[in-house]
Amino acid sequence: MSSPSTYYIPHDAKWPIIGSIALFLFFAGFAAFLNGGNSVVMLAGGALLIYMMFRWFGLVITESENGMYSKQVDTSFRMGMMWFIFSEVMFFAGFFGALFYARIFSGPWLSGIGEGGAAATNAVLWSNFEYMWPHNGPAELGGEYQVMGWLGLPLINTIILLISGVTVTIAHHAIKEGNHDKMVRWLLATVALGFLFVGLQCFEYYEAYAHLNLKLTTGIYGSTFFMLTGFHGFHVTMGAIILLVVMLRGRRKHFSATNHFAFEAAAWYWHFVDVVWLGLFIFVYII
Amino acid sequence: MSTATTEHHDHHDDHGPAYGWKRWLFTTNHKDIGTLYLLFSLVMFFIGGGMALIIRAELWQPGLQIVDPLFFNSMTTMHALVMIFGVVMPAFVGLANWMIPMMIGGPDMALPRLNNWSFWIMPFAFLLLLSTLFMEGGGPAGGWTLYAPLSLQGGDSFAFVIFSIHFMGISSVMGSINIVATIFNMRAPGMTLMKMPLFVWTWLITAYLLIAVIPVLAGAVTMLLTDRYFGTSFFSAAGGGDPVMYQHIFWFFGHPEVYILILPAFGIMSSIIPTFARKPLFGYASMVYATASIAFLSFIVWAHHMFTVGMPLAGEMFFMFATMMISVPTGVKVFNWMATMWRGSMTFETPMLFAIGFLVMFTIGGLSGLMLAITPADIQYHDTYFVVAHFHYVLVPGAIYSIMAATYYWIPKWTGNMYDEKLGKIHFWISTIFLNVLFFPMHFVGLAGMPRRIPDYSLQFADWNMVASIGAFGFGFSQLIFAYVVIKCMKGGEKATDEVWEGADGLEWTVASPAPYHTFETPPTIK
């Protein structure tokens, strides 16, 4: 594949405006849905968004296969992906920040520990509240519940994700040797592990709701538990779909030993998802 | 860094712009997208300004006369959201689009399709936001900071507001990633980092701030959304959360955001002042380091917005001292600009007038900021008009003046025509006089104890409020001169030379005026 010598600047970008319309329908529809409307507009927007991504990525893949991207374009893509992942890290940082704040400050203050006005809320409203993590607040929102232990499913899920990090690396080495079949096999394993993780996570949620009475509405513990693991689970699903697309492209021999940015971007994303999980496993489940 | 050469590729047919509406809808050209951003920003400036005039009309005299208090509150909320996210940020992104590729000798932005999307999200996001004004229960009225629990008590519009913020955030993050990739990957050979114009440097650092904090805002408003609609307890003490936690997360975004609104302005000043002083910028390297220091410090000062919420003493002390440290790198900048002008052969065309206006009045805002940084003093000033005066002094003669200075400075390069110098100067002087009539009295009523975000006030504040309202209408209507000058310049006028300004330095002045549709497809040689 020869590399062009000028920087490829596309013309007539038709998909972005479709993407804007899709997002508008999705957001407006979602907001209407939350206010008691139906979900038709939201779903239409979501479907259009998925279609847009399918076509936009398809266009980029075609252009890449036709050799229109130089090394410099490749670098732009790499930087784009890198900083996109960094922005995702910061998104999770916000939720981790909420978890730490609730555990280090709000909880003790509600139980009357701390200087300044901290003791007032306890004295006036909830003088019986004593802080220990996890808790569902002085008003015990959501009622009696059991804590999600870290042994069992979460530990198995940790092992699954760690193994998937290894399998994706083996696949990477395979494509670096130019071995498409081996890459596809190991990617298949990675994707399978990814979806297994998501499946087990769903089962864990079912257990939490059905047997532990642990819900999104179970005070701050339920809020942080489900929001952090939920957004993580969503990212695992995305990551697995990305890897699946890369695998299908691998079957069509889209990559070469030196040129396989899509694979690397997907792998970076997968490792990011992996690292976030380790943070979750330690701070949400164990400690 | 690999380079582009003159050799043409089959797929790269070198055509000019398409015709009609399709050109603007589907464009991937950095100049077209820059123009779109700037025009969008201009339109939003008048919408946000109209809201400000409604506020000032109500405050013309004590008592409730024109609007009901809920609508007044939604005006203060929307005015801020529109001005921050719809005017200043898109204007800076528009300037970045136009100027950065030309300043670094690159053929375009690194990711042109993404660039188109970053812009075309904005009109839709603001359609979503502004539509809330027509909903039952009105638009958001709890202040632009959307503090819980107040913001959670809004009407149906709440979800729309949250999603519009997500929507704008997507645009900001994509735009910033594009700018980072452009600056690192599209520079002409020889354009080393320390040769880049300061506008490029300040935007690089701003882009990092955006990538780091916009997702945190997205997280914060997502928590608001789930607290309201899905029964989570992030900001409810009953469930073990804390409303103050929202403020911490919000201001972790909000304070770097303040610098997002001013760092590109510093870059613009560093371009304009040397041109009209006919001297190189004094202390280039120190400017770069000062910008980076301000960006770093911006992450560890957020709780100075919250001195009255009841933080532990150690927190109050830390945030006070960290905040005051920011005045060191900012002082470096102000003194560098003054040293640049020192013994320069100065002339005072409109861009320079706005630049000097910036320098003087931004510094006033900076000094009142220093007063607000002192915790025991802030407890007195908190949520008064003194704060309103402070941030309007840094935003209006700061961010907005820099954008106007940049427009007057670069519009001959964009359109190929000189703007009307006489009208430009009139615009500057009328704006500057009315601006001070508008905002300076707010210091007095603030120190006397007038609270912000209130449609009615005690009688003793009446005189200065009337003065401020006169200033507001004067300033507001004088901006029509600006719109007129811009439109007139787009339509025609005296032809501009390629260099435009006698003392101008930089790659953008080496190309024709107006700048050709494609510039630097062959990278220039950098000395």
Description:
- The complex is a heterodimer of chains A (287) and B (527).
- Chain A is built from eight helices and no strands.
- With 287 residues, chain A is an all-alpha fold.
- Chain A folds into two domains: 1-69, Helix Hairpins (Orthogonal Bundle); 70-286, Four Helix Bundle (Hemerythrin (Met), subunit A), CATH 1.20.120.
- The longest helix of chain A is centred in the N-terminal third of the chain and has 40 residues, at 71-110.
- In chain A, 41% of the residues are buried.
- Chain B is mainly alpha-helical.
- Chain B has 16 helices and no strands.
- Chain B has helices spanning 21-26, 30-58, 69-104, 112-131, 157-185, 198-229, 243-260, 263-277, 284-297, 313-325, 327-341, 350-373, 375-381, 385-415, 421-447, 462-491.
- The radius of gyration of chain B is 23 Å and the shape is globular.
- Residues 1-13 of chain B have low confidence and may be disordered.
- At the A-B interface, helix 1, helix 3 and helix 7 of A face helix 1, helix 4, helix 5, helix 6 and helix 7 of B.
